[in-house]
Protein: N-acetylglucosamine-1-phosphotransferase subunit gamma
Organism: Xiphorhynchus elegans
Amino acid sequence: GPAHLFRLAGKCFSFVESTYKYEFCPFHNVTQHEQTFRWNAYSGILGIWHEWEIDNNTFVGMWMREGDSCETKSRQTKVHLLCGKSNKLAYVSEPSTCVYSLTFETPLVCHPHSLLVYPTLTEALQRKWDEAEQLLYDELITDQGYKKILKEVFEEAGLLKATEEKEVEKQSKKISLEFETVEKCSKEYRQLSEEIKQLKVLLGQHGIAYKANSGE
């Protein structure tokens, strides 16, 4: 994300509303503490730093997810970033059950370019974005296709978390790339054959029968 916001890391900002104290620690977590003398006063985590909220290619907020469990799901919080004279937690609400909304004001986001995503990317990812822009301009991809490429760029940059299916896909791609050439495949085959021989010996030493199959 934007490097100038990292100076907020390691700091915490609180906001008190009626009997609750909310604490937001950027790039860390959001907590809630019930300030009462009840024996079972609630104190817990409303979310842990997870990913950015990106809208119109601009960082607009932070998602804190995987907080304490709440019925069938985990508590989560979206922190909106707004320009303000000082760093402060200005407002807290719960728009839907166990999903919280925090407004954080800071002078660090007052500059019109302070939350642009593009400058935070590596050259390679900026190039990928530029190419997508050109493809869209040449009408070689649809608006939906363009958004899909941008989402991939943001995921590669670590700004958004890839879905589990994406991770599995990434892993299988890695595996398939290992066998790009016949030499690589043969080398891998030799190593596996050697490994099988050693395992057969080990099994024999322990008196375990080895049943060969057609896929040996």
